[in-house]
Design a protein that fits this description.
Helix content is 52%, strand content 12%. The chain has ten helices and six strands. It is of the alpha+beta class. Helix 1 runs antiparallel to helix 5 and helix 1 runs parallel beside helix 6.
C-alpha cells in the first residue's frame, strides 16, 4: 500500500510537470480556483509542501499561524522567483520529498503531529500530499473553476485511494465541532473507482449520503456542495446544514 501512495504522488507530480511545460505566460498568471492564487502560485504552494518535508528550515517561520495562513506566507515569500526557478525547485525538491515520504509511508508505530490539521499515523501522512495534488490539479487549475482548458489528469483508483484515505483520517479531526453537532451518525457512501463508506458521528444512523468520489472531494474541500447531481442525501434533513459545512485540508 505504501508503494501505491508514492506511485500516486509521483504520477501527479509528473502530470503537473507536463502541464507546466505547456503553459503560456498568460496561463501562468491566470487566477486559479484558489481565491487570491494564480496558477503559478499553486505550483509554488506544491513546491513549498515538498520543501516542508526535506528542508523545512528554508521556509519562512510561521509559528503560531493556522495551516492555511502559513501556506499563503510560503507562497508570498516565493512570488518574486522567476517561473523557471519555480519549476526547477518543484522538480528537484519533489524528487527528494518522494524519497523521504516513501520512508515515512513504511513507518509503523509512529505518529506525526501536523498542527491544526491533526495527528496521524506516519504512514498516512504521504496521503495528504496525494490529496493536495489531486485537488489542486483537477479542481483549481482546470475548468470550470480553474483557467486551463483540456482534460485534467486522470481520476483513477491509483490517485483516489490515498486521497480518500486522507479524507477519512482527517475529516473527524478537522471537523470536531461539526461532527459533535450531528444527531446520531451519518454514513457517507462514496462510489466510483474506489468505494468507501465513511461513518461520522456517534449513535444510530440518522442519515446517509451517496456520492460519486469526485463530487465528494469537491464538496469536502469547499469546491462543490451537496446539491451536485450525483450527490443524494437520505434521512434526517436537519443533518444537511452540518454536512454542508464539513471541510478537509
Amino acid at each position: 500500500m505504501s508503494t501505491d501512495v508514492i506511485e500516486a504522488l509521483r504520477a501527479d507530480r509528473e502530470a503537473l510537470l507536463e502541464i507546466c511545460a505547456g503553459l503560456t505566460d498568460a496561463e501562468w498568471k491566470a487566477e486559479s480556483g484558489c481565491p487570491g492564487w494564480s496558477v503559478r502560485d499553486v505550483v509554488i504552494h506544491l513546491g513549498a509542501l515538498f520543501t516542508a518535508v526535506v528542508a523545512p528550515g528554508t521556509l519562512p517561520d510561521t509559528t503560531g499561524l493556522p495551516t492555511e495562513r502559513a501556506q499563503d506566507v510560503y507562497v508570498e515569500a516565493r512570488r518574486s522567483w522567476p517561473t523557471e526557478r519555480v519549476v526547477a525547485d518543484y522538480t528537484t525538491v519533489g524528487e527528494r520529498a518522494l524519497q523521504a515520504l516513501a520512508v515515512l509511508a513504511r513507518s509503523a508505530d509512529r505518529e506525526v503531529h501536523l498542527g491544526d490539521l491533526g495527528t496521524y499515523p506516519a504512514a498516512t501522512v504521504p496521503c495528504a500530499f496525494v490529496f493536495d495534488h489531486f485537488v489542486h490539479l483537477r479542481h483549481d487549475l482546470f475548468a470550470p473553476r480553474g483557467p486551463l482548458t483540456g482534460p485534467p489528469p486522470p481520476v483513477d483508483e491509483l490517485r483516489l485511494e490515498p486521497t480518500l484515505r486522507w479524507i477519512e483520517a482527517a475529516l473527524p479531526q478537522q471537523n470536531r465541532a461539526a461532527v459533535a453537532a450531528l444527531t446520531g451518525s451519518v454514513d457517507i457512501v462514496v462510489e466510483g473507482p474506489v468505494r468507501r463508506v465513511l461513518r461520522i458521528g456517534a449513535g444510530g444512523r440518522t442519515a446517509r449520503v451517496v456520492t460519486e468520489a469526485e463530487s465528494f472531494v469537491r464538496w469536502i474541500t469547499g469546491r462543490g456542495d451537496l446539491d451536485a447531481p450525483d450527490v443524494a442525501v437520505f434521512g434526517d434533513p436537519l443533518q444537511g446544514p452540518v454536512l454542508r459545512g464539513l471541510r478537509v485540508w
